[in-house]
Amino acid sequence: MSKRIQAKDVDVYYGKFKAVEEVNIDIAPRTVTAFIGPSGCGKTTFLRAINRMHEVLPGAYVEGELLLDGENVYGSGVDPVSIRSQIGMVFQRPNPFPTMSIRDNVLAGYKLNGTKLNRADSDAIVEKSLRGANLWNEVKDRLDKPGSGLSGGQQQRLCIARSVAVSPDVILMDEPCSALDPISTLAVEDLINEMKEQYTVIIVTHNMQQAARVADKTAFFNIQGIGKPGKLIEYDDTNVIFNSPSNQQTEDYVSGRFG
Ligand SMILES: Nc1ncnc2c1ncn2[C@@H]1O[C@H](COP(=O)(O)OP(=O)(O)OP(=O)(O)O)[C@@H](O)[C@H]1O
Ligand SMILES: [Mg+2]
Description:
Strand order of the largest sheet: 5-4-1-2-10-9-3-8-7-6
Radius of gyration: 18 Å
Mean pLDDT: 94
Helix content: 25-40%
Strand content: 25-35%
Shape: globular
Number of domains: 1
CATH architecture: 3-Layer(aba) Sandwich
Distance between the termini: 36 Å
Bound molecules: adenosine-5'-triphosphate, magnesium ion
CATH class: Alpha Beta
Largest sheet: 10 strands, mixed
Number of helices: 11
CATH topology: Rossmann fold
Order of helices and strands: EEEHEEHEHHHHHEHEHEEHH
CATH superfamily: P-loop containing nucleotide triphosphate hydrolases
């Protein structure tokens, strides 16, 4: 079930270094939101704060409130592992487990959280997840072959299947197409369009055309200088951000004057 993500005055630190400052954002369910902005402005850092992947680094922490349908993701007694199963993540480089079969890659989330499935249930999850990732027809006859035997674009769709297999509410994608050719990129973009019926999707991208193609809303982050924290500058409907932004920094960035 797709859920709302809200950040209230969120700061994200690596030890003493504040990498992201005062993010306030309200992301509705069943939407695709693009995070854009120059390198180093904190897109990945903020994304990883949303599902508590940030805190696995020594000294890294988050201040402020992050809410998933109104519930504090960082509340006391909240298990980060359960947060990460509700808020899935897809990385820049496809990272299937190379020696695992395609089937076991899809089921990896269940193995990790110790859920035992019988054969019928696991078959159903594998098929549903691979269909959901637009990959079923390409792999249904070789489910027991290693995931590493797929093309880059297929591997990325396999990673998407792995993240949807555990029925998350939100899917975070950090530049999911940056290692893919144009055809595979379009396949993943088509998939993102379909995914928003079931999930809240956030995608980091450096590709403005991609943001314009897939995102309902766009958030522009910027940084004022080296060593300064990144900030959310403007968040609005994608066509507003690209055609009539209200902030001059946004205008300069989307028109290619920097970054
Ligand atoms: N593990 C880390 N330890 C310390 N500082 C880090 C770490 N990871 C990132 N940073 C710093 O945090 C800031 C934000 O980095 P981040 O990776 O979030 O930027 P980004 O917007 O995703 O950039 P890009 O577009 O290049 O991926 C940068 O100054 C970066 O050097
Ligand atoms: Mg990044």
